UniProtKB/TrEMBL annotation:
Species annotation: Photobacterium phosphoreum
UniProt keyword Coiled coil, yes or no: no
Similarity-based family: Belongs to the 5'-nucleotidase family.
Keywords: Hydrolase, Nucleotide-binding, Signal
Cellular component GO terms held in the UniProt record: outer membrane-bounded periplasmic space
SUPFAM superfamilies linked to this entry: 5'-nucleotidase (syn. UDP-sugar hydrolase), C-terminal domain, Metallo-dependent phosphatases
Domain 5'-Nucleotidase C-terminal residue range list: 344-491
Domain of life: Bacteria
Residues making up the signal peptide according to the UniProt record: 1-22
Identification of the protein by name: Bifunctional metallophosphatase/5'-nucleotidase
GO biological process: nucleotide catabolic process
Gene3D superfamilies: 3.60.21.10, 5'-Nucleotidase, C-terminal domain
GO molecular function, one term: hydrolase activity, acting on ester bonds
Length: 596
């Protein structure tokens, strides 16, 4: 055979042989979650820039990656329209977050639990103004009619990717005692995922799940974490998780890769799926991977900044409105030991103020429970601005709902709260916090007004509340208590696994129902109280209704260990690279090691 003919034939065979030159295609999925109103790198509770993350910084990264691959898939796993005062615009024609999502051309958006904070009217406007596909495969009207689609099939480069969307089924529990869900019901997401997989597996080359759920189950309730979903549905290629405010580059469960992009736009998850085309023209997934990009100090996208400029201006104006004056003393004392929040160890004027507001606007209550999600609260003498209230009470949707219960129920709730602390040992020099409770996405130490009590940390969890009295008299188990608190917390207490699991308490009052969805929030009522009731003048005071007891070491040694910590000579025990401090006590042994 002529050599040239031979070469031509050989070349033709090689080029036409899929086994030698099989087509490979890479598909990239980018995921965000729990943005909580961070549309630009700015914190409106302090009115200061915060370059740790935002949607506009994510836009910069997405733009960079799209230059490399214009066919990237972009998804969000929920909790976008609440937080950082973004709810100011909840009744606008379109949320700033949806403007941002549309500008970035998100393909899918899965609802989070906080999307339901403002009722279905706001939520329906949100999803109808989103140009992509909103997903919620386990939410139904009256357990029958789907609230939103359960999936979307996206085609990129000839590859068909099925995107399933699921929300945490805990929403019904979180909304316990309110009517904001109306006729909506929430089903088991693992079962719903399996149903969708059956529907679309023959129409897709790979299926991913985008879920507003963390990896682990909440309160050990089956199928409330995507880990259980992965174990039951190995057909999934990958999962973009959310809800728990943690950063997960890559976890693998039952062959399914899982990534979670932290919170507040501080990370962007990336999933890479690599496909190979066989000689029948079918694509097979041959490899996959995931990781996250850190957004810290990344430049903000100029186009997004322009879009968001009027919203930024409005929120800045609102944040700096003066509502009154604080006189006398700061509402939160300085921390005695750096890294140990004084507000978690002692009664403060700040919690007393929120309780005072509750008693005034919810007079049916004889006990008020509040908690501070901000671990570094501060309200010094001087002007009180809107941003100060928002900074110190972070939950924008929090309200005062009054529940009728017994003294026994109240004690159970208080014991659960006291479980936030570690037990004290004889040589301990500091009080410390339970590591799991300390690292929870929300504070789980609630503070009670209208009663006096002590938390005795020499006792085991469940047996710490002592000297519990109302008006100087011990509270009995059968005594009727009208407890004011936010319904979101009540949902946590009464859900499966909660300390008050299965209880259905009579609702005596709901500040949102009485004063309005926005006007009835703790934030707005506190501002109204300062401005209208106190005529713009608040005197700092602390009720000293409660205290933590149990340390038996000398005051002198406790002061010495405080000096060592404050001078930087000794570090508080911490977890997650120092993110959560004071997770174990400092002891006499620590003092001895650092003074010789």
């Amino acid at each position: 055979m002529n050599k040239n003919i031979y070469k031509t034939v050989l070349f033709s065979l090689l080029v036409s042989s899929p086994s030698v030159y099989a087509e490979q295609v890479d598909i990239t999925i980018l995921g965000t979650s729990d943005l909580h109103g961070r549309f630009i790198p700015w914190d409106y509770t302090t009115d200061k820039p915060n370059l740790s993350g935002s949607l506009s910084q994510i836009a910069t990264k997405v733009g960079e990656l799209r230059k490399q691959d214009p066919e990237i898939i972009l998804v969000d796993a929920g909790d976008a329209i609440q937080g950082n005062n973004i709810e100011t615009f909840k009744n606008d024609a379109i949320s700033p977050m949806m403007l941002g999502f549309n500008q970035l051309k998100y393909d899918a958006y899965v609802l989070g639990n906080h999307e339901f904070d403002f009722g279905l009217k706001v939520l329906k406007n949100t999803v109808t103004t989103f140009n992509g596909t909103p997903l919620a495969g386990n939410i139904f009207h009256n357990a029958t009619s789907p609230f939103l689609p359960s999936y979307k099939i996206v085609e990129r480069k000839g590859i068909k990717i099925g995107i399933i969307g699921m929300d945490t089924p805990m929403i019904a529990a979180f909304a316990n005692g309110s009517d904001r869900l109306q006729d909506l019901t929430f089903s088991n997401p693992s079962i719903e995922v399996k149903k969708v997989i059956t529907q679309i597996k023959d129409k897709t080359d790979a299926i991913i799940l985008v879920a507003h759920m963390g990896i682990d189950n909440e309160n050990n309730i089956t199928d409330t974490g995507v880990g259980d979903i992965a174990r039951a549905n190995p057909e999934l290629a990958a999962i973009v998780a959310g809800h728990m405010h943690v950063k997960v580059d890559k976890a693998v469960i039952n062959g399914v890769i899982i990534t979670e992009p932290y919170k507040y736009g501080r990370a962007l998850s990336r999933i890479d799926l690599n496909f190979k085309k066989d000689d029948q023209g079918k694509y097979t997934l041959i490899s996959k991977d995931s990781f996250t990009y850190n957004m810290n100090k990344l430049p903000s996208d100029p186009t997004m900044e322009t879009i968001f400029k009027p919203y930024h201006h409005k929120l800045q104006q609102d944040a700096n409105k003066v509502i009154g004056q604080l006189e006398g003393q700061d509402l939160v004392p300085h921390n005695t030991i750096k890294g140990i929040p004084e507000s978690q160890l002692h009664d403060t004027g700040l919690t007393s103020l929120f309780q005072e507001v509750g008693f005034y606007f919810a007079p049916q209550a004889n006990v008020i429970a509040v908690h501070l999600d901000n671990m570094n609260p501060s309200l010094p003498v001087g002007d009180i601005k809107v941003k100060d209230i928002n900074f110190n009470y972070e939950y924008a949707g929090g309200e005062y709902t009054v529940y009728e219960m017994t003294g026994k129920d109240l004690k159970a709730y208080m014991e659960w709260s006291a479980g936030y602390f570690n037990s004290v040992k004889p040589n301990d020099l500091t009080y410390s916090f339970d590591a799991k409770r300390r690292s929870s996405k929300y504070s789980t130490h609630d503070i009670f007004g209208g009663v006096t009590y002590q938390i005795d940390l020499t006792q085991a969890a469940g047996h710490r509340i002592t000297n519990l009295k109302m008006n100087g008299k011990p509270i009995t188990d059968a005594q009727t208590i009208n407890l004011g608190m936010n319904s979101y917390r009540m949902g946590h207490l009464t859900k499966k696994g909660g300390v008050l699991e299965g209880h259905k308490f009579k609702v005596l009052f709901d500040s949102k129902a009485h004063y309005g969805t926005e006007a009835g929030t703790v934030r707005q009522l506190t501002m109204r109280y300062i401005r209208d009731v106190k005529k713009g003048h608040i005197t700092g005071k602390t009720e000293n209704d409660w205290s933590v007891i149990g340390l038996s070491t000398s005051k002198a040694d406790q002061q010495r260990i405080a000096q060592l910590v404050n001078s930087g000579k000794i570090a508080l025990p911490s977890i997650e690279n120092g993110r959560y401090t004071n997770t174990a006590a400092l002891t006499e042994a620590d003092l001895m090691r650092n003074t010789h």
